[in-house]
Amino acid sequence: MTVPEFDKLLKAIMEDVKVDAALSKFERLKTDNDRINFILSFPRFKHLKISEKRCEKCDKKCEKMKNSAEDTSKNHWEVLKYYNEAIKFAPSHSNYTPFLYASRSGVLYSLQFFSLALKDIARSLNYSLPIKTTINLQVMRGSCYFSMEKWCQAESTFLGVIDIIRSSSLNNVEKVKFTGEILPKLKYVKEKLHNKDKEQPKPNHDKSLRSIADFPSLYNGPNTNIPAASSALKCNWTPEKGRGLFANQDIKIGSVVIVEKPFAWTSSKEAMLDHCLHCCKYTIAPIPCPGCSSVCFCDEECREKAMNQYHIFECPILDHILESKDLSCMGLLVYRIIITANTQAITRSEMATVLHKTEANENNTSVESKLNFISESLSCDETEQSLNSIPVNFSSESYVSVYNQVTNTDRRTASDLLKRTVTACFLLRCLQSVVGDNKDEILVGSRLLTHLQSCACNAYQISEQIVPQGDIKNSKEAEIGGAVYPTVSLCNHSCSPNVVRHSKGRYCIVRAIRIIKKGEEILDNYGPHFLANTQSERQIQLQSQYFFKCHCEACSENWPTSNHLKITKSTYLCGNCSKCIGSSLTVFKKCPHCKKKLNSKGFDLVLQDLNKTYKEALTDLLQGNILQSLEIFLNYAENLERMYVFPNMPLVSCQQAISLCWSLLGNVRNMTN
Ligand SMILES: [Zn+2]
Ligand SMILES: [Zn+2]
Ligand SMILES: [Zn+2]
Ligand SMILES: [Zn+2]
């Protein structure tokens, strides 16, 4: 294995700064501009030219994968995997391409992914094909509609094939054979169409569509000032914590408080192989990038958007970023922030029409003209908006929201800043090599550096729930990428959060996991959680990554971690005044605070009943009844909030069950093979 270019460079610079007290000179620099200037003046950087480096297309690999796929002893899933690889590596003018799509459509048909099969059939039919292949594909198209019980489309497709067969140059024996295959199906379709009105609608047999597609809607509608957040929230500024989101009314458990599209995002290197680069969804039958073999897309629409908006700027140098562990996901994310800022500036300048006309395949020609706006997009006056103010018209799509994120520059060590500066300069040279233009390099470099700092505290993971063979109990969360969500970033941290984040596609959905009362702050969790980490572990982690001392409830009261909580008796709350009445119900006849009579028997009965329903719902969840179980969990959690002092194990377990439901309603990958 060769050492990645970036790693070599970083090592060399670290050696360079040891001489001539360069590090202490660097340490005294005040601004990101100065730091970029300083590093760019090193001879290593001054003349650094980044050559193209991408995972190239390869005829040989394509052919090898195709041959493996045609080895029929393998199962459908395995065959599909080989075709996916063959399609990914096929050079853009490969003669194999139409046949690869044709063959893959057959595999998808066998696996009952009919809509996906239809897409591959259409892709294949875009090319001129031998007549028999065309007929076979059209018959399969008809059969897909047939299996999906789309009788009208099935009929017109079958009738169309019969026409093709009739007017073809096939001999009569062949014509009879092909037509003979179609006629019984066509007859069945005609009967179905005839009896259509009398029949009940059937469930959908297409496996391609088997996911819950809808986004949940924001509780109480969107906020006028912060459109990605619920109108039940408002943004306030406090001297201790800066900006934060607060409830302006009581919020129930399960309420959706933020639904946000990222400003910029990227899949991790591994996820790029089988997740759409644009929408982040796991794809069973991906289509390739015309330029490289590192990434894939779920369909043409996502590919066109990705190409036009950002991938043309990264495709030629992508492997430089991916191959270095130190750069990888974060480096690419920061690179994308700059590209997105630029693309949006173009859009703002009504260049949208120009972008729209650019074909995905012309990816190499038009890059230069597209980056003209970069200086304007990065230095617009709006960026002067202060971090210390409450945002007005806070948009997830505006660069200002990202530019204003906390960088913690003053708290970083010189070597931390040095490493980030070298990274920024390397990314700058990558960008310059793609656009062939060095203008505004200090500005662009310093913005890259700013985001390399702010993303360390403001980037979130995009996740996916992996379910092995439908086994929900053993499903687990996996990270598939990283993203910048400006609105979500407004939430401050607590080791005992009252909201949880889940991914759906590349979107982030934030929901209340505790009752949030009017005036209370919306508190997210940045990683260290009281159930998993001790107070001192949490403080160390938060200090080193986020540079603050946590004063949350769990930290100030030193709550027990999960292991200790399991053996701790729960403490009850008075149903009337909500004050703590101890861990035994038999001690008091009256509440010591509000003097109201306590009905311990009634309390016990209610609890028993709730517990029983909860346990049944847990079993139900493992059978896949997500929505039904979720409703019961939410009700149980609301009740437990009123009955016990938090933290208590029953509510913690219930929250985990709720969170699992939300994961299963988000990005899910069913491991079928
Ligand atoms: Zn997609
Ligand atoms: Zn590419
Ligand atoms: Zn804390
Ligand atoms: Zn009371």
From TrEMBL:
Pfam family, one: SET
GO MF assignments: histone deacetylase binding; N-methyltransferase activity; protein methyltransferase activity; S-adenosylmethionine-dependent methyltransferase activity
Keywords: Methyltransferase, S-adenosyl-L-methionine, Transferase
Gene3D superfamilies the record matches: SET domain (2.170.270.10), Tetratricopeptide repeat domain (1.25.40.10)
Domain SET: 231-527
A GO cellular component annotation in the UniProt record: nucleus
PROSITE patterns recorded: SET (PS50280)
GO process terms (BP): methylation
Name this protein carries in UniProt: SET domain-containing protein
Species of origin: Timema poppense
Lineage: Eukaryota, Metazoa, Ecdysozoa, Arthropoda, Hexapoda
